[in-house]
Design brief:
alpha+beta, globular
């Protein structure tokens, strides 16, 4: 980001960090490093854009630079931590957590969270292409292996879910928000089921679901059957034994989704994780294998 807005952005992230710690006992690391310093340390950052479908394009980052910065921010070096001066500018308008846990499509049984790290940080492209081609061969297209389907989704209107969303967005209890969200969730069930625009939103939602992240690693959530997951893990294990990659996986019976919605036409995106720990559990497996690449 440009230096002109860096301080304001870090303050906003620090506000979010404090809110998550106060309300959920979850400590988020926040920090920054100039790209020039990343290059000085011998790391690379290659940026591109990939089109998943007509509605969704994703950023692609190759090179070990981003994960080098991550290790520094997660470490003990205070010089990379964000400023502690907060300006009370927390704004999570558009962030929603309305969906219940989502079962896989009917012909599939398991959700696989997969993390892959290339051991050669300077030439990751061919390695990741080989893996993504194999995933396509085993599971089919990006849409076919998506854990999100219209049939599998249902709105969650429990008091706990609404209360959690209220704390995330406002940092405290807000009676007006509570009433508004309770009412809109109740109405939303009918809107999504019987209204043509509501049904169109659901179909667009599936297209705009972010199940693949390339940030110097492969991070993806895949829906399939156990035999498909076994086949992929056998392929990855062979690559790992050859010294090409390290990987971590976690399987679950459902996925979870959070959303950022600016409008319900095409300005929304949806983030997916596996149930029962998902990416966190897969990362735990990967860390046991990780070498400083």
């Amino acid at each position: 980001m440009p230096s002109e807005i860096l301080e304001d952005c870090l303050n906003a992230l620090s506000e979010h960090q404090q809110n998550c710690y106060d309300n959920f006992d979850l400590f988020l690391r926040v920090g920054n490093m100039p790209v020039s310093e990343v290059y000085e340390k011998g790391y690379r950052l290659k940026l591109a854009k990939g089109r998943i479908n007509k509605n969704l394009s994703i950023p692609i980052i190759l090179g070990g630079g981003l994960h080098y910065v991550e290790r520094i921010i997660k470490g003990e070096n205070d010089s990379y931590k964000s400023p502690k001066v907060l300006k009370n500018i927390l704004n999570l308008e558009g962030m929603e957590c309305r969906w219940d846990r989502i079962k896989p499509p009917e012909d599939q049984h398991e959700i696989l969270c997969l993390l892959v790290n290339s051991c050669n940080r300077d030439d990751q492209g061919p390695v990741y292409k080989k893996i993504l081609d194999k995933i396509e061969e085993i599971y089919g297209s990006h849409k076919k292996r998506s854990p999100i389907s219209v049939a599998g989704m249902s709105l969650n209107s429990t008091l706990d879910r609404i209360n959690s969303e209220m704390k995330i967005k406002h940092g405290s209890r807000n009676f007006k928000f509570f009433l508004k969200r309770t009412f809109s969730t109740a109405v939303g069930k009918f809107y999504l089921r019987f209204n043509k625009e509501g049904q169109k939103y659901l179909n667009t939602l599936v297209d705009l679901t972010d199940t693949l992240v390339l940030d110097g690693r492969i991070n993806t959530v895949i829906s399939g059957v156990s035999s498909q997951h076994d086949k992929l893990e056998q392929f990855l294990s062979k690559m790992e034994s050859n010294g090409d990659i390290q990987f971590g996986t976690h399987r679950s019976k459902e996925s979870i989704m959070s959303c950022y919605v600016r409008d319900r036409k095409d300005q929304h995106i949806h983030f997916v994780d596996g149930g029962d720990g998902g990416y966190t559990k897969a990362a735990g497996v990967l860390k046991t294998k990780f070498s400083d690449n």
